[in-house]
Amino acid sequence: GENVEQHPSTLSVQEGDSAVIKCTYSDSASNYFPWYKQELGKRPQLIIDIRSNVGEKKDQRIAVTLNKTAKHFSLHITETQPEDSAVYFCAAFYNAGNMLTFGGGTRLMVKP
Amino acid sequence: DAGVIQSPRHEVTEMGQEVTLRCKPISGHNSLFWYRQTMMRGLELLIYFNNNVPIDDSGMPEDRFSAKMPNASFSTLKIQPSEPRDSAVYFCASSEGARQPQHFGDGTRLSIL
């Protein structure tokens, strides 16, 4: 099946700095890659997604890049704010199983 | 839209008891997913339905777990008998299709004593 690895598992940055979270996937046929943000005690919420026909997508301070050849994709958060502190999950659509496989999560802490 | 609705939000029960978790997907969504989240294992897919039909239940831990979707607007996840190791947050999610954004409910925090 699909294997999604996410790094780092924890990330601490100073407010205003950038944060980058990276994920790799194993199924070369995967073509949908969402990112979720989960605040403490709350549900995962979709923040951005990308499909394999594009290499980059931006939404204000958030951007996602995709390298299909290398089978990795990354989340970039610029000008981080304390409210960005949360656990972030990447996921890849596993074609053979027709379902999403999630990475292990990254706990992002933004220090004021 | 009210989003994905799960009930109960919290459940505390003694081991051996039957537990039933409920989910109402977003209207018009034809895919429904049950996940379990723990610190040790992260977010695990238990089972998913497409058009009310179970497609993949390979994530269901064992026979004590069962899930049903009798119609497009309702699904249950049942654990019988429950054990302390089943303690976790159980999320239900729905989407317009398998390759579409999944919208999560607020989860059920289950504690088995």
Instruction: Please report the two chains with the greatest interface, counting residues with C-beta closer than 8 angstroms to the partner's C-beta.
Output: A-B, 20 and 18 residues
Report the radius of gyration of chain A as a whole number of Å.
Answer: 13 Å
Q: What does the overall shape of chain B look like?
A: globular
Poorly predicted tracts of residues of chain A: none
If you had to describe this structure to a student in words, what would you say it looks like?
The complex is a heterodimer of chains A (112) and B (113). Helix content of chain A is 0%, strand content 58%. Chain A has strands spanning 4-7, 10-14, 19-25, 32-38, 45-51, 56-59, 62-67, 72-77, 86-94, 99-102, 106-111. In chain A, a hairpin with a 6-residue loop joins strand 4 (32-38) and strand 5. The mean pLDDT of chain A is 93. Chain B is 0% helix and 55% strand. Chain B is built from no helices and eleven strands. Chain B has strands at 5-7, 10-13, 19-24, 31-38, 42-50, 53-56, 65-71, 74-79, 88-95, 103-104, 108-112. In chain B, strands 2, 4, 5, 6, 9, 10 and 11 form a seven-stranded mixed beta sheet that branches. In chain B, a hairpin with a 2-residue loop joins strand 5 (42-50) and strand 6. The radius of gyration of chain B is 13 Å and the shape is globular. Chain A binds chain B through residues 31-32, 34, 36, 42-46, 49, 89, 93, 97-102, 104-105, and chain B through 33, 42-43, 45, 48, 50, 55-56, 91, 98-99, 101-107.
